[in-house]
From TrEMBL:
SUPFAM superfamilies: ABC transporter transmembrane region, P-loop containing nucleoside triphosphate hydrolases. Residues 343-578 form the ABC transporter domain. Keywords: ATP-binding, Membrane, Nucleotide-binding, Transmembrane, Transmembrane helix. SMART domains: AAA. This is Thiol reductant ABC exporter subunit CydC. It is a multi-pass membrane protein. It comes from Pseudonocardia hispaniensis.
């Protein structure tokens, strides 16, 4: 069944899909499971052989008769340690390789910008870290131990039946109860707890990130206490879920111990009865009883793994929520490219969900090479959505966007961004230096080129006055720079590209009037013969534009030059009169 984007929805549960991710390393996991079975079998055999050795020694046989058993005891001890090491090495190596593959898939999915905006930042971090680690938990703790227990348990039951059929059957019943019934009960009880614990971890992470990033505003409005209370509630919920999880682990361990004790007593009583009627000797009795005691090492990890299955399932579901998020931008298989030419937008329609209103509803726009065009309109009219389409952050739901006659969606997003660059409405500065933030646009740029572009956006003097110059750290999200400086640095980065079309979405929002005019002058000058599409709510300086498009309700309601639009009755003329009317009051 496809989703609204036409992408087929998965038909398997998250646990099965997580296991499917490990399929390329199936042979490696099989080798690890075999090593684990050998280690467990060696441990059980060591105790069984020790029982035979002690019981036989009590009969005072010749020393030579015990020599082979002594050598085998040492061999089993060494085998157990080596096999356990190999099991951990092989299974963890395979699990970590699978985990690396999962992380690559998640990062590749998030490299398309739109999924990041669909999740809260703190919750997304939890999905990337804790929920992704669920793959490793499932493979190391949920897959290898049950398979090893199945192999070793079959051998132990065979040995018990060979010694005494009733005793072997009692041992088989005990192992089935401890290795199947107790884990099933633990898994059923842990399903809801696992979901709550996973959700609480995501909520706590989101609350912490929101409180830390929003601390200045929270303090300014006296809301920090409420934010801290939210963190405390999320922490309390996670603590409660963790306590329930610990209780389930204890319950599983207690159930296994209870079944092990009952099985040991049953085996002992059956063995004693067999010795009394002469069907079993004292030495086999000792071997049978101590084998039964050692056998429960095989199933001891299973209840804990089963109790964790609910949390693993919930984490897997949250992980696949990210991987299954339908892309808002399609990447065509072909390697097409754009050639310089006019921009033509025809009947462009975009909306953010099947039941939501159209953000763009049949928009038409033309931009010739080297021309300067402004797009204005009220807030929420669709201006930034148009910029997002041109930046290839979204694909049209209908209509076409062509550059030089080539459909923008027919080429890869990277190829489109080599032709179209600019500044989004909320540009991001990385926690690095001024130099490295600029070199994102042109890695080979020299310092002279960087200073030149900083001069063009009137930021060179500010950077030169800083002690480290181009090596100045801008801080997280550019926190060490003012809003205007962050915007100008983003403008400088855009100018470093070789793109033929610059899309500037509110480029002077954070600047004072004098700086706004100066930066706009420098920007238009620096653009040279490149086409410029200016998306703005600022109605000043529009007389310098070759054309102005007025967008209201996702449609172009007026189009023309500044003077021509002022001569017409409509939104543009009314918007220009409002500031004058307000100033006269």
């Amino acid at each position: 069944m496809p989703n609204s984007a036409g992408t087929p929805l998965p038909t398997h549960g998250p646990v099965r899909r997580l296991l499917g991710l490990a399929r390329p390393r199936g042979s490696r996991f099989a080798l690890g499971v075999l090593a684990g079975a050998v280690a467990t079998a060696a441990g059980t055999g060591l105790l069984s052989l020790a029982a035979w050795l002690i019981a036989t020694a009590a009969t005072h046989p010749p020393v030579a008769a015990l020599g082979v058993a002594v050598v085998l005891t040492r061999a089993l001890g060494v085998t157990r340690g080596v096999a356990r090491y190999l099991e951990r090495l092989i299974t963890h190596d395979a699990a970590l390789r699978t985990l690396a593959q999962v992380r690559v898939q998640v990062y590749e999915r998030l490299a398309r910008i739109e999924p990041i905006r669909r999740f809260r930042s703190g919750d997304l971090v939890t999905r990337l870290v804790s929920d992704t680690d669920a793959t490793q938990d499932l493979l190391v703790r949920g897959l290898a131990p049950p398979l090893s227990a199945l192999l070793t348990g079959a051998g132990v039951i065979t040995l018990g039946v060979a010694l005494l059929v009733p005793g072997g059957l009692a041992l088989a019943a005990g192992l089935l109860l401890a290795g199947l019934a107790v884990p099933v009960v633990a898994a059923l009880l842990g399903r809801a707890t696992g979901r709550r614990q996973t959700a609480a971890r995501g909520e706590l992470s989101a609350a912490l990130v929101d409180a830390l990033h929003g601390a200045p505003d929270l303090v300014a409005y006296g809301a920090m206490d409420r934010a801290v209370a939210r963190v405390e509630r999320a922490d309390a919920a996670l603590t409660r879920a963790a306590r329930r999880d610990a209780g389930l682990l204890g319950l599983g361990a207690a159930g296994t111990a209870l079944v092990a004790g009952a099985t040991l007593w049953a085996t002992l009583l059956l063995g004693v009865a067999a010795v009394e009627d002469g069907s079993l000797g004292p030495v086999p009795l000792a071997v049978l009883v101590l084998t039964a005691l050692a056998a429960f090492e095989i199933v001891a990890p299973l209840p804990a793994a089963a109790a964790r299955l609910g949390a693993i399932r919930a984490s897997g579901a949250r992980l696949f929520d990210v991987l299954d998020t339908p892309p808002a931008v399609r990447d065509p298989a072909g390697r097409g490219h754009l050639t310089p030419g006019p921009l033509q937008v025809r009947d462009l329609r975009v909306r953010y969900g099947p039941g939501e209103p159209w953000a763009l509803d049949g928009l038409d726009l033309d931009l010739a090479p080297g021309a300067r065009v402004a797009v204005v309109g009220p807030s929420g009219s669709g201006k930034s959505t148009l910029a997002a389409v041109l930046f290839r952050f979204r694909d049209p739901d209908a209509g076409t966007v062509r550059i030089g006659g080539t459909d923008l969606t027919a080429v890869s997003p990277d190829a489109a961004r080599r032709m179209i660059s600019g500044v989004p409405q909320d540009p991001h500065l990385f926690d690095s230096t001024v130099r490295e933030n600029l070199r994102l646009a042109r890695p080979e740029a020299t310092d002279a080129q960087l200073w030149d572009v900083l001069e063009r956006v009137r930021l060179a003097a500010d950077v030169a006055a800083m002690p480290a110059g181009l090596d100045t750290d801008v801080g997280v999200h550019g926190a060490r720079f003012s809003g205007g400086m962050r915007q100008r640095l983003a403008l400088a980065r855009a100018l470093l590209t070789d793109a033929r079309l610059l899309v500037l979405d509110e480029p002077t929002t954070h600047l004072d009037p004098d700086s706004r005019n100066a930066v706009l002058d420098d920007l238009l000058t620096a653009a040279g013969d490149r086409a410029v599409l200016l998306v703005t709510h600022d109605l000043d300086r529009l007389a310098e534009m070759d054309a102005v498009y007025v967008v209201v309700g996702g449609r172009v309601v007026q189009h023309g030059t500044h003077a021509g639009l002022l001569a017409q009755d409509g939104w543009y003329r009314r918007a220009h009169r409002l500031p004058a009317a307000s100033a006269s009051v």
